[in-house]
Structures are given as structure tokens and as C-alpha cells.
Description:
Blueprint: E1 2-3, E2 22-26, H1 33-46, E3 50-55, E4 60-65, E5 68-73, E6 77-79, E7 88-90
Parallel strand pairs: 2-3
Antiparallel strand pairs: 1-2, 3-4, 4-5, 6-7
Amino acid sequence: MAFVRAGRQLPLKELPKGAPDLAVEVLLPSNTLHEMERKVSDFFTAGCKRVWLVYPEDREVYIHGLSGITRRAAEDLLEDPELLPGFSAKVSTLFE
């Protein structure tokens, strides 16, 4: 899943260039750590602001930002006031 903030100019008749502001990747058991590290790096290289890696088996979300990684689980809130003002949800609701 990808999210692009309002106000960004995106072409309507072609694939956009660059990266979304937020990328969300839901991991499968077959995904490797190396593969995901490379994917996160590629997103940041392309200009992405944040990457959320969702681990359904562990019911956790790892938020990758330019300043580091934050882990959210169960009753923790998943929010990002800079990119998603007003959005807030418990991590557990993602897996219901």
C-alpha cells in the first residue's frame, strides 16, 4: 500500500515517478530480512518519508523513518501526525 499526501502533483495518465510519502509492506513468511532491508533502502533512496513493515504473524508494525526504527505492537497506537494528521489506530485492529 502507498500513501501520497494531498498537494503533490501526480500524473493522471502514467505511473508516478519517485516514491510515496508512506509505503506499507505486509510481510509474508517467505520474505527474508535481507530482501526487506533492501526494499526499505530503495524506498528511502527514491524519496519516501516513512515505511511501515507489518508482521502479521507477530502482530507488530515496525515504523522505519529517517531517524530510526520504532516498534509498535498490540495496544500501541499506530499514528503519524506529520503524514497522517488525525489518523490513529491500535495496532491490534489491523489484524482483526
